[in-house]
Amino acid sequence: MSGAGATLTSLPATTVVFGEALVDDFASEQIVGGAPFNVARHLAAFMAPQLMITRVGADRAGSLVRAEFERFAMSEAGLQVDPIEETGRVLVERGAKGHRFTILPNQAYDFIDRAQATAALAAVQPGLVYFGTLAQRHERSREALTALLEASHAQRFLDLNLRDGQVDERRVTRSLQAANIVKVNEEELQVLFGWYFQIKPEDPAPAAEQVHASCQALLRMFSLDALIVTLGHRGSVYFGGDGQVLTQRDTPAPPFVIDTVGAGDAFAAIFLLGKVRGWPLELALTRANEFAGAICAMPGAVPGDMGFYDKWMARWR
Q1: Average pLDDT of the chain to the nearest whole number
Q2: Of 15, 99, 101, 248, which is most buried, counting CB atoms within 10 Å of its CB?
Q3: How far apart are CA 51 and CA 77, in angstroms?
Q4: What is the DSSP track for 82-136?
Q5: Non-local CB neighbours of 307 within 8 Å, separated by 6+ positions
Q6: Is the pLDDT of residue 204 over 90?
Q7: Beta bridge mates, 159
Q8: pLDDT at 97
């Protein structure tokens, strides 16, 4: 059956991505980013059905975000435009010791509208829901996310993405309780260990057995299906709720690293792509590591040239 008689169950499963789309504001240029938007753009480039739910302002930065929706051929069904608040910005200062970031408060992505978000969700068949923590710092967007999670029975993927001063332990705890699969990096895992097990950064480094035991304890504490810890160029470790542990170290580091911006987002996108495509777990993790390494060998979180994705699609076909 087609047309008006078609049902949602006949639609392909869509990965719903909720959160911030913003611009990194350098002195000389503005670059579109935001961890959720990076994930959504990668998924779109691999032609995986996705719905990006975010909010931008009616300003120049918002036009830059919308141009990226167009460049990646993404649906704007979940893109909201705020008539008052500005598109999210992160002020970036380059220095001798690296970059300094200032995440501005009260940005458009803090005010994602619940009704518009749930209406966009109702038009797709959600297979996965991706969310983070930055877009939960304001009550308005938290309410929208809560409504989405309540309306969808899809598996929930939490990419923690902790940012200094932007989220507290209570919000992280609720996010962990809402998730099925959680991805963290080593620094974020240390924060969780400090909050929940009183293992402080200044304490002697725990043995590998203690780290594994603590990760398994997090799985039980929050009834998670899986916890994924990314280790930069050293790969990743997957802890399953069934006791399975998979260590991925067989992908070599890129021959050179330009920057690591967006590497975690690239990993998350390919892991989710593997879930959508039905890849075996080990293969999905291996490919996620490999793709994240390739992102480190180019400037920025997503490629400027869409042809970048061609070799990956050919290799993974």
Answers
A1: 92
A2: 15
A3: 7
A4: ESSSPPEEEEEEEETTEEEEEE-SS-GGGG--HHHHHHHHHTSEEEEEEE-SGGG
A5: none
A6: no
A7: 183
A8: 65
- What residues contact 184, with CB distance under 8 A and at least 6 apart? 160, 192, 227, 228, 229, 230
Angle formed at CA 260 by CA 219 and CA 206, multiple of 5 degrees:
40
Q: Which residues partner with 67 through β-bridges? A: none
For the chain, the structural domain boundaries read 17-316
Q: Please list the alpha-helical segments (H only) found in the chain.
A: 35-45, 60-71, 114-122, 139-151, 169-178, 186-197, 208-221, 263-277, 281-296, 310-316
Judge whether residue 55 has pLDDT over 50: yes
Strand-by-strand arrangement of the 22-25 sheet: 30-33, 22-25, 88-95, 98-103
Choices 3.40.1190.20, 3.40.50.150, 3.40.50.1100, 3.40.220.10: CATH for 17-316: 3.40.1190.20
Strand order in the sheet with 181-185: 79-82, 50-57, 13-18, 125-131, 155-159, 181-185, 226-230, 236-240, 245-248
pLDDT at 3 over 50: no
Whole-angstrom distance between the N-terminal and C-terminal Cα of the chain?
30
Q: Is the full-model pTM beyond 0.90? A: yes
- pLDDT value, residue 300: 86
CA gap 256, 293 in Å, rounded = 10
